[in-house]
Amino acid sequence: MEDGYQNRTAFIKGAKDIAKEVKRQASKKVGRSVDKMSDEYARRSYSRFEEDDDDEYPMQGSQDGGYYRGDSTAGNNDEGGHSDSTEGHDEDDEIYEGEYQGIPRADSGKGSLAGGPGSITAGAQEFRDIDVSDAQRKKDKEELAQQYETILQECGHGRFQWSLYFVLGLALMADGVEIFVVGFVLPSAEKDMCLSEPNKSMLGLIVYFGMMVGAFLWGALADRIGRRQSLLICLSINSVFSFFSSFVQGYSTFLFCRLLSGVGIGGSIPIVFSYYSEFLAQEKRGEHLSWLCMFWMIGGIYASAMAWTIIPHYGWSFQMGSAYQFHSWRVFVLVCAFPSVAAIAALNAMPESPRFYLENGKHDEGWMILKQVHDTNMRAKGHPEKVFSVTTIKTVKPEDELVDIGTDTPVWERYRQKIMSLSKQIRKNLLACFSPEYKRTTFMLMAVWFTMSFSYYGLTVWFPDMIKYIQKQEYDSRTKTFTKERVEHVTFNFTLENQIHRNGYYFNDKFLNLKMKSMVFEDSVFEECYFEDITSTNTFFKNCTFIASLFYNTDLFKYRFVDCKLANSTFLHNKEGCVLDFSDDFNNAYMIYFINFLGTLAVLPGNIVSALLMDKIGRLRMLAGSSIISCVSCFFLMFGNSESGMIALLCLFGGISIASWNALDVVTVELYPSDKRTTAFGFLNALCKLAAVLGISIFQSFVGITKALPILFAAGALAAGSFLATKLPETRGQVLQ
After folding, report:
1. Is 547 helix (H, G, I), strand (E, B) or coil?
2. Mean pLDDT on 695-700
3. What distance in Å separates the CA atoms of residue 364 and residue 158, rounded to the nearest whole number?
4. What is the CA radius of gyration of the chain?
5. Contact at 8 Å (CB) between 235 and 182?
6. How does it sit in the membrane (predicted)?
7. CA angle at residue 196 from 193 to 202, to 5 degrees?
8. Is the dihedral of CA 25, 27, 30, 35 positive or negative?
9. Do 550 and 530 touch, CB atoms closer than 8 A?
10. Each residue of 509-562: pLDDT tens digit?
11. What are the CA-CA distances from residue 288 to residues 285, 509, 662, 736 (Å)?
12. Which residue in 297, 273, 631 sits closest to 451, CA to CA?
């Protein structure tokens, strides 16, 4: 045994000397890139020797084939105990005790010591030409999954996970805010930008299109460039274009900014859940991923509260002439970017997922992060003396090795080749989700995601539209109608609202400094009338005749005159753009925000229940059970004939259905391996947004026509989703693939 250890020491010293010489000679010719190869070679040579000696000289108290240092208890009791991998002093490299030297890898190829320098040359050739088969990669992944779960158990659940919980919660909160922003600003933006009905519909749906693209794009990239980096990029895009959208004036520019803002925030959900799950042990995963879902609810509450506080205050605005106007709804858009900005700032203090590093062959980086998790939790629990006992972690060799393009290649060509390579890798990853191993799971999840999204988003938009329809019916029932009235030499300087005037005759009348709201004049004659400082909303003149009349500083544009005749009439200094005024809709605005606030708050009980029961009853029971109860609750909508009744049913449906969403998020994370997790989640989330667009479009078309069809559509989709959910594999109690 003594000779064996002497051989070990001699080999390590020889390998390091050769590596130094290779570095010194190669750096003169090809630069720094060879330095990394020689470092890797030295580490791998050390690993091969250690693996060969494991059977003859096993580590004391080793677990899982030598992944843990022996007698960790004694190390814990020693004052100033430290990791075996970070102690010692090398005279040449000046590595001191406590400095990280790199951890030997347990999955490196085995080599022989007998060949001396010749065997080292063979090892270098092996390092360049190594090719791991798919079967070997699969075996490595399974071993990594088991060991990673054991390491997470040792690290414990504590301060680090809770810190990451709040940081990722801000990112999820930003997604919740984004869903509500356009809906809240639309009533104001349509007046401020003079939007037509088609433009209003496009503005309402554009965010979903952006999020659909973003979910797929950032989800796929997160499996290639890392969870943290992808999340930082997508949140930055969301913040920048949310900021710009609050200042731009034109409709097209605003639409473009909201589209790119949606593209940015679309990646938050697939990345956040995958990122957080890779720091959670199996007994904590379902519960804490469900707690994380609460931040989506908090985002909705934040958006409702900010809209309630800011938008109705018309005084919170300024303008520079008639060309630039900054109204209160723009302040609200700006404030809604704060969660995303806060998430970016906090995320800079968080590390990358160690599982991502280990799946891509970056052993040392993954080990350091897991040690950070362990040490942070142990210090918070009052056990700073406990040492991270893991010395070596299984890693998976990446399928795609980086190719050195060369320094003489043009910059644009290098970037083009990198983008092409990345695109091929993303396409390969997506197709892998439809491989025989995952095809059934993917198609089943596609059906569940589609049916749930179609019914949930369709109904949640249909509810407010039905409430507005009920309000409109009540408003129309109070409409006053005047026929064949003759009005001469009268001055109108008060608000005219909710009236219909038919076959009237107005001679030498003055309409001064007044507001017209929901006014309709049909088959009437205006002769020598004077209109000045008129502000109108939903006001039209149909088949009317104007003779020698003057319009001065009004917003009575051409589209308000339907089949009208104007003889010797003049328009002077018409108002530019549309006039935004909350004085008439003040109570209505508060009611809209209050309804959304209640609907969002109603999901709190469902979030709590799902978090507490997710790991007890299982993901599939939670998913199918909640979907069935939501399906039954849809039929109560038939009895919602009043405003208060519809609000109560909205809260009931939201509170029940949130549990199924939480379970679906958890089961999606757990059904795919780490190297495909965010790609699959992003693809399914993109499908979810497509189903949302279809659901919203279809359900809105039935407002005011029938209740039966939307209810049957929603109930049928939920029933189908709950049935298919029972066919998915249960993931409770399993290690993260």
Report:
1. strand
2. 86
3. 23
4. 33
5. no
6. Multi-pass membrane protein
7. 90
8. positive
9. yes
10. 999 988 888 899 999 999 999 999 888 888 899 999 999 999 988 888 888 898
11. 6, 70, 11, 14
12. 631
pLDDT tens string 105-133: 444 444 433 444 444 444 444 444 444 46
Enter the tokens of residue 511. Answer: 């309409």
Containing H/E element for 170? helix 159-192
In whole angstroms, what is the distance from residue 295 CA to residue 315 CA?
A: 31
SS3 of 106, please?
coil
Round to whole Å and give the CA distance between 293 and 665. Answer: 9
Contact 109, 124 (CB under 8 A): no
Strand 324-326, strand 318-320: pairing? antiparallel
pTM: 0.73
End-to-end CA distance of the chain: 39
- Spatial contact of 660 and 622, defined as CB atoms under 8 Å apart: yes
**Do residues 674 and 278 make contact, with C-beta atoms less than 8 angstroms apart?**
yes
Quickly list H helices, 31-92. 33-54, 72-77
What stretch of H or E contains 268? helix 268-277
Do the beta carbons of residue 656 and residue 626 sit within 8 Å? yes
Decide: 158 and 377 in contact? Cβ < 8 Å: yes
Distances (CA, A) of 20 to 17, 36, 114, 406: 5, 11, 21, 24
- Helix, strand counts (H, E) of the chain: 23, 16
Backbone dihedral angles phi then psi of residue 320, each to the nearest 5 degrees:
-115, 95
321: left (phi over 0), alpha (psi -120 to 50) or beta: left
Spatial separation of the C-alpha atoms in residues 461 and 208, rounded to whole Å: 13
Which residues face 545 on adjacent strands? 525, 565
Q: Where are the alpha helices (DSSP H) in 55-157?
A: 72-77, 117-129, 134-155
Give the CA distances from residue 577 to residues 323, 333, 517, 541, in Å, rounded to whole numbers and listed in that order.
9, 20, 17, 20
3-state secondary structure labels for all residues of 600-649: HHCCHHHHHHHHHHHHHHCHHHHHHHHHHHHHHHHHHHHHCCCHHHHHHH
**Bridge partners (DSSP) listed for residue 547:** 527, 567
Residue 403 DSSP SS3: coil
- Rounded to whole angstroms, the Cα distance separating 118 from 523 reads 104
| pLDDT reading at 360 higher than 60 | yes
Dig out the tokens for 168 from the structure: 């990722």
Give the model's pLDDT for residue 449.
Answer: 93
Structure tokens given for 85? 């991998």
Give me the half-sphere count of Cα atoms (radius 13 Å) on the Cβ side of residue 307.
28
Please count the other Cβ atoms lying within 10 Å of the Cβ belonging to residue 6: 10
Sorting pLDDT into bands at 50, 70 and 90, what band is 642?
confident
**pLDDT recorded at residue 71:** 41
DSSP 496-538: EEEEEEES-EEES-EEEEEEEEEEEEES-EEES-EEEEEEEES
